[in-house]
Amino acid sequence: MALRSLSLLVLVAVALRESCLGASSHSLKYFHSSISEPSQGLPHFVSLGYVDDQLFNYYDSSNRKFQPRVPWIEKVRKEDPTYWERGTQTCRGEEESFIDHLEILRTLYNHSGLNTLQKMIVCELRGDGSKGGFLQYGYEGKTFLTFDKETLTWVASEPQAQIIQRKWDAIPGYNQRHKVYLEEECIEWIKKYLSYRKEALLRTEPPVVTMSSRKKEVEDGMETHVCRLHGFYPREIDASWTRDGEVWLQDTLRGSVAPNADGTFHAWLSIQIDPKERGRYRCHVEHDSLQEPLDVALEESKSSLGIIIGCVVAGLVLLGVIVVGIYVFFKRRQDDYKKAATSEEGSSRSSQGSNQTA
Question: Is residue 121 classed as helix, strand or coil in its secondary structure?
């Protein structure tokens, strides 16, 4: 079970990148997850908030505080001093609810060991001005309950879900509140967050370039050097190894550009060389934040700073893989939702939009 869960965690990066939205569309996503065995090193409950594909707030059952993950979200505090406290209380309520529901589901399915319950809330502001959204629960990586905002009912994907479905449908005003949130409140938050983020996106942050080296390989006497690029913005960056001033691709490896918690990015590239030729190599970096390209020589790496930063980056990547893994089962749902949205738009045009949700 644990091995299967780890496999799902690795796949989440694909789910994040393969959005059903066009380039001019924007979304607000919240992902919640609870696991039955936090003793395995994962928090009992995790909540993540995304504006488009950028993580902007975070909560887990270990610290029990709604926390910012990008600098621009701090602007909310100035306009709304109670924002973070309200978010904390909301997440604590979700945490308690998830723990109770997970135990109910484990009983219904007669499950034991490591089990997971997930929830995804998504609203969209599309490029053409139309709006969309959905709310869905999943258990053990499978769709469990889906909210139908047109009929104001829950749709059970499995027989065991019908117990919860009937309970929620019977609560006066419960489903109506979900509809209002998806179609009105959530959309307003998208607009507000985009206005906060707009100013931040105009900035540039130069990369911090550090080097680290590994011991020589016994077999061939070659040594490995790693050039690490940390804390840069925007995402686009051109980095390469050069030998005698020319781009050198032989015996090189390159990691993908990945996000940091503060909204900046990091990357790395490595090379294997003969230590006798160390002076011929440079890490060449070009970025919008730099007035001139950087050429960092291997000889300049004489401290453990690069290793330290490398460990920090590795830790961030591991944490990112763990926390975002909570909604990988929704990837298929996003694909289905894209098709449904396309069909809905076509139906709306044919019926002159009389019965469609704005």
Answer: strand
